[in-house]
Write a structure and sequence with these properties.
The complex is a heterotrimer of chains A (356), B (360) and C (280). By secondary structure, chain B is of the alpha+beta class. Chain B contains nine helices and 22 strands. Chain C has 13 helices and two strands, in the order H-H-H-H-E-E-H-H-H-H-H-H-H-H-H. In chain C, a hairpin with a 2-residue loop joins strand 1 and strand 2. The longest helix of chain C has 31 residues. Classes of the chains: A alpha+beta (356), B alpha+beta (360), C mainly alpha (280). Chains in contact: A-B, A-C.
Chain lengths: 356, 360, 280
């Protein structure tokens, strides 16, 4: 069990870590989600003992790690840059931590060889890092992290510098590799909500050094507790629509009146924010907007629409061409919308299976 | 501005070797004036060689490069009036934004009034008007990249702009803005733009025509939607789209190829022999749906990748494993499911090449 | 077109290399001349243009009117090499510390300490000569090898620190962190991970130290009398009322030889070791 309590750090007036408290159980993969600079790397370095802290404690199996230097913490880490020892072969790179731990060279190499085979580099054990491709270098780094059987494994955006297709492949392999490590707490930092939801047994949402929320992917996606958390979890960005409800109905201008047949009807009078995810708008319907830009992401087309008084983002599950400047008709699924109070706190979560 | 025609073009880095190895296989290609194109492929696929041939850094070992019908094969980069934007923004750090933009014109000795006017126009287009007096080094990465682009655009005689993975170093949050800008510029300036990238998202987002390359060969060229829906080869089906397209092994049966575990199959097109070659049945995970009319796909859910609004199911039926991407499905790992697919979404691939599609 | 370009390229290379090599050839031919040969205009080919003689070379090895160059040569080697080695060791350690750990004493920070090292090279040598002289005199080390070694360390250390700080700053910090997590304490990290990857930096720093040390004349001249002559001083002492060009040329070639050898070796080292592959 890894426990973090009130980790605190600010530098030059910027909050790096703001009172982070979290618990991590072995055998689980925790996806740490947040934008660049949200504190993901600082969190990992704090666990590894490489981040200066203003306060807070890191405890592992009940033991306070405050006085323990990085080289005595049983932590393995994979960086987003491909870090390996340039002067050693792939085999000796992976054997290095074992040799440092006192294993005999022969045994260390034997285990290193097996680990390299597991990550699919069995035929390249004698190459130096500079003779390997980026993907292969990162495989060496992963093997070096896994070979230690460390109780804590930190993966800091490990695939972000790989090609798009390779990233997909690595993600799937990682799940297989980690499946065997039942005693390990694994943290995986990422900027992509989709990746966090796919990989994480639990997801931690970070924003400006603070841990907004922690939870299981489905639960978190269905009911993020604040607008802030919902935003961090949404890619493409969530449509956030301010609405004033009077007598069970509200007007959204160009998007028309919303009320009857939706949860809006049940709300007491007042101001609210509706969070409508891009995937909860479908093409076809009465409403329309002018195309500002379309983007392709994986197999999805993300279209930015201007309806006159709203900028909306719409996501379709295939590759479609919408010319900039043309009008696209769409239908919002209000039942799936998240309802936030004026203070940004969630009042109603997503209703699953609302459509589709 | 110019139409670019690559005529019977091929390139080999060692043209005198007895066994000629091509970095770029013979091809014939026309790029229309004012359009957007993307060269998409993994590293070593020949896209950079092609880019260098167009810009004039490499002289092709065979064929000709024509700009508006004019043979420029032997001309060097400068004479071709090609502008390039690289991965890392290239700016003159010591100069202001205006000086940066004016530099190519100053070098050409244009009158000062004309330069000022032109720089004003381009800055307006790039949305950099308010930054003109600022030192270029103080700008953000995406703005610097715009300056690199602007230095190409500022010359009125520019034939084409080549973009070599220009968004690689840009922050994800700024990519959106820069992409939007690139599209606007393309429309406003009407200049041919060619993007080189290994990222399918970049290519499909940016270009009207995407040229997929592999092993020095053009695998398929077409609109993004076409590449997605009718990939010409298994390679394209795998490379484009996420998750990759399903390609299931088939067995011959009475002039058809079938996936026995799913009872799903298509007739082999006329003139093809169903018993020779390796045949697969391909369909997109996105084209599978939960309810409605279509051929059934029965199996057990082996794994679920939760993605938010969508989830990707890994379904197994006997030896066969396929993926399906569904919205809002209430399913659990280990469950048996019956999914559907429209027959016209199926296609046969023989030895990796698409040979026929749909129900007949 | 292509052939013309190639021809021009090789012509340019040829011109430049002859410009570089010519002084050496000139010195070589002069070293085999006598007084007559030197003064009778430009001559190049032995036996054709002039009658070669070994006078110049003999005067370096105890010949008439000359010196014995062995003593000063050995002194120079001892002083330069030992000062360079000590500077390199101390400088590398200091540089690693300055690059990786934060020091602070009041307003003095890492940058200030680095500058303090380098600042010693900003002062004109003449300013340093007097204090050095007095210090060595007090210590009784004037005109001795140990005294010279100490002075040369003071001169070469800044160079080593400067080069190595710059080198270490370009070695990714993540490499150190990786080593920590693999169980190395900071000293092991330095010895087992950083040092094996620092060959290019060490070669450059070592080169600079050896060249500066070997070529120094000023301190060798001011801090020695007769007991411990260094090579540059010995060579200058050849000069008398009649400049013996033949002997000077020979001495010049002898003194420049180790540097040429060094440059050749260093070039091979530099092309071998690199940090590619540490970080993408």
């Amino acid at each position: 069990m890894l426990e973090l309590e009130e980790l605190e750090r600010s530098e030059n007036g910027t909050c790096i870590l703001g009172g982070v408290t979290a618990r991590f159980a072995p055998g689980k993969l925790y996806a740490v989600l947040g934008r660049t600079g949200a504190g993901k790397t600082s969190l990992m370095k704090a666990i590894a003992g490489m981040q200066a802290l203003d306060g807070g404690t890191v405890r592992h199996n009940g033991e306070d790690w405050a006085k323990r230097p990085p080289w005595k913490r049983a932590v393995a880490m994979v960086y987003q840059q491909f870090i390996n020892y340039p002067h050693l072969s792939a085999l000796d790179n992976v054997a290095f931590p074992l040799v440092r731990r006192g294993l005999r060279r022969r045994e260390a190499r034997e285990r290193a060889r097996r680990e390299l085979e597991r990550v699919g580099l069995g035929s390249m054990v004698d190459r130096r890092p500079s003779q390997l491709s980026g993907g292969q270098q990162q495989r060496v780094a992963i093997a070096r992290a896994l070979v230690k059987d460390a109780p804590i494994l930190l993966l800091d955006e490990p695939f972000v510098n790989l090609d798009y297709k390779l990233r997909e492949q690595f993600r799937e392999e990682l799940v297989g590799l980690l499946g065997a490590e039942t005693g390990t707490v694994a943290l995986y930092a990422t900027t992509e909500p989709r990746e966090a939801l796919q990989l994480g047994d639990e997801v931690l949402l970070f924003h400006e050094g603070r841990l907004l929320e922690q939870g299981e992917p489905r639960a978190l996606f269905a009911a993020p507790s604040t607008v802030e958390a919902a935003r961090v979890l949404s890619d493409p960005p969530m449509n956030l629509l301010p609405i004033e409800v009077r007598a069970g109905a509200g007007n959204l201008g160009s998007l028309g009146a919303v009320g009857e047949g939706t949860r809006i009807a049940e709300l007491p009078d007042g101001r609210y924010h509706l969070g409508l995810r891009a995937g909860d708008l479908t093409v076809g319907g009465e409403l329309s907007g002018e195309v500002v830009l379309t983007e392709v992401s994986g197999s999805e087309t993300i279209t930015h629409l201007d309806t006159g008084d709203h900028e909306l983002v719409l996501q379709e599950k295939s590759v479609v061409r919408h010319e900039v400047g043309t009008r696209v008709h769409f239908q919002p699924h209000w039942e799936a919308a998240l309802v936030f109070g004026e203070d940004g706190r969630l009042l109603h979560g997503r209703r699953e299976g609302g459509h589709g | 501005m110019a139409e670019i025609h690559l005529e019977q073009l091929a390139h080999s880095y060692a043209p005198d070797a007895p066994e000629r190895v091509y970095a770029l296989q013979p091809l014939d290609l026309t790029w229309q004036d004012g359009e957007t194109y993307a060269l998409l492929g993994p590293s070593g696929c020949g896209k950079t060689t092609m880019l260098n041939i167009i810009s004039g850094l490499i002289r092709p070992s065979e064929g000709r490069v024509l700009f508006d019908g004019r043979d420029v094969t032997g001309e060097d980069t400068r004479r071709r009036n090609i502008a390039q934007v690289f991965q890392v923004p290239v700016i003159y750090r010591s100069m202001t934004v205006a000086q940066n933009l004016a530099f190519p014109l100053v070098c050409r000795g244009l009158p000062r009034a004309r330069i000022r006017q032109r720089v004003g126009e381009i800055a307006e287009l790039l949305g950099l008007s308010t930054f003109l007096k600022r030192p270029a080094r103080e700008l953000t990465a995406d703005q610097k990249q715009l300056i690199s682009l602007g230095r190409g655009l500022v010359r009125e005689d520019v034939s084409a702009i080549l973009l070599d993975e220009p968004l690689t170093v840009i922050d994800p949050q700024m990519k959106f803005e820069l992409r939007k800008k690139l599209k606007q510029i393309n429309e406003a300036a009407g200049v041919t733009m060619v993007l080189v990238t290994h990222d399918q998202n970049e290519a499909m987002t940016f270009a009207r025509t995407v040229i997929v390359m592999n092993h020095g060969r053009i695998v398929q060229s077409g609109e993004p939607q076409e590449l997605f829906e009718c990939p010409a080869t298994e390679y394209v089906g795998t490379f484009i789209g996420s998750p990759a397209m399903n390609f299931l092994a088939t067995v011959p049966r009475e002039g058809r190829r079938e996936v026995p575990d799913l009872g799903l199959g298509l007739s082999v097109p006329k003139g093809e022999d169903a018993r020779s070659g390796t045949w697969t049945l391909g369909f997109r995970p996105e084209h599978v749906f939960a309810e409605g009319d279509g051929w059934p796909l029965r199996g057990r859910i082996r794994r679920i990748w939760f993605e938010g609004v969508e989830q990707v199911l890994e379904v197994e039926a006997g030896e066969t494993v396929f993926r399906a991407k569904l919205d809002h499905a209430r399913v659990r790992t280990g469950e048996s499911v019956e999914l559907r697919i429209a027959p016209e979404r199926l296609a046969l691939y023989r030895d990796g090449q698409r040979v026929g599609a749909g129900y007949d | 077109m292509r052939t013309l370009y190639l021809a021009l390229k090789y012509l340019a290379i040829l011109l430049w290399s002859s410009f570089v090599v010519f002084p050496f050839l000139w010195a070589l031919s002069t070293s085999f001349k006598t007084a007559n040969g030197v003064t009778s205009g430009a001559t190049y080919l032995p036996w054709v243009d002039y009658e070669p003689s070994l006078l110049g070379w003999e005067s370096l090895f105890g010949g008439a009117g000359g010196i014995n160059i062995f003593g000063p040569y050995l002194n120079s080697v001892i002083v330069t090499v030992s000062a360079s080695v000590v500077s390199l060791v101390l400088g590398t350690l200091a540089a690693y510390g300055l690059s990786r750990f934060r020091f602070r004493a009041g307003f003095v920070k890492n940058g200030d300490i680095t500058f303090f090292f380098i600042s010693q090279r900003i002062l004109p040598p003449i300013v340093l000569a007097m204090p050095f002289f007095l210090m060595l005199q007090t210590l009784g080390l004037l005109d001795t090898l140990p005294g010279l070694v100490i002075v040369y360390i003071a001169l070469l250390l800044p160079i080593a620190v400067w080069v190595m700080v710059d080198f270490f700053n370009n070695v990714p910090r993540e490499l150190d962190e990786m080593a920590w997590l693999d169980g190395c304490n900071p000293i092991q990290t330095f010895l087992r991970v950083i040092l094996p990857n620092s060959l290019p930096g060490l070669v450059v720093a070592g080169m600079f130290c050896l060249i500066f040390g070997w070529n120094d004349f000023f301190f060798a001249f001011t801090l020695t009398f007769t007991n411990t002559q260094l090579l540059p001083v010995a060579i200058v002492s050849l000069n008398s009322s009649v400049t013996p060009w033949w002997a000077l040329s020979a001495a010049c070639l002898v003194s420049v030889a180790p540097l040429l050898l060094l440059a050749f070796l260093a070039e091979r080292f530099l092309s071998r070791g690199n940090l590619a592959g540490a970080v993408r």
